[in-house]
Amino acid sequence: MKTFVLGGGCFWCLDAVYQKTMGVSSVVSGYTGGHERHPDYYSVCSGTTGHAEVVAVTFDEDVIPAEVILDMFFALHDPTTLNRQGYDVGTQYRSSMFYETTEEKILFEEAIERNQALWSRPIVTEVSRLPVFYPAENIHQNYYAKFPEQGYCQVIINPKLAKARKYYSAWLNA
């Protein structure tokens, strides 16, 4: 099993797609990359903690290649916008990849290079060593499954799920 910690805007969006991805055994929404110890949702949303909203995606490479997990990441958000995804603005929504090993760092850098061809502007995704990962509060875990009728889910997450189904249907459970 391998775990990647990825930030692509609001963690609910990445969580919703990776929860439906074959070979993914767990997705944990959380916070990392900042200076505040034990942050919570409200402090991270304030933009003062330095943390990004991220997901820790644990998957089986015998079922789904690491490259597919990473290419999905680049398809599910705009990695060319600095510190924003759509209406979500601030460093907490930055495009980010946090590595634990040199091998992961290389995979992340290769994914950026591979996916740059799909974007007309430069990818600004931050690649950093993973500091402490703080799991988010329970309400944020598997958020889309809990609240599919919520407005954010309908307007923001549903189009991302539709895009994932269009391009990655072979890897999705639903």
UniProtKB/TrEMBL annotation:
The Peptide methionine sulphoxide reductase MsrA domain covers 4-154
Q: Which UniProt keywords apply?
A: Oxidoreductase
Instruction: Give this protein's Gene Ontology molecular function annotations.
Output: L-methionine:thioredoxin-disulfide S-oxidoreductase activity; peptide-methionine (S)-S-oxide reductase activity
Question: What is the protein's given name?
Answer: Peptide methionine sulfoxide reductase MsrA
Q: What is its EC number?
A: 1.8.4.11
HAMAP family in alphabetical order: MsrA
User: Known catalysed reaction(s)?
Assistant: [thioredoxin]-disulfide + L-methionine + H2O = L-methionine (S)-S-oxide + [thioredoxin]-dithiol; L-methionyl-[protein] + [thioredoxin]-disulfide + H2O = L-methionyl-(S)-S-oxide-[protein] + [thioredoxin]-dithiol
Q: Where is the active site?
A: C10
Signal sequence, renumbered to the chain: none
General function of this protein: Has an important function as a repair enzyme for proteins that have been inactivated by oxidation. Catalyzes the reversible oxidation-reduction of methionine sulfoxide in proteins to methionine.
Its taxonomic path starts at:
Bacteria, Bacillati, Actinomycetota, Actinomycetes, Micrococcales
UniProt similarity note = Belongs to the MsrA Met sulfoxide reductase family.
Stored PANTHER family: PEPTIDE METHIONINE SULFOXIDE REDUCTASE (PTHR43774), PEPTIDE METHIONINE SULFOXIDE REDUCTASE MSRA 2 (PTHR43774:SF1)
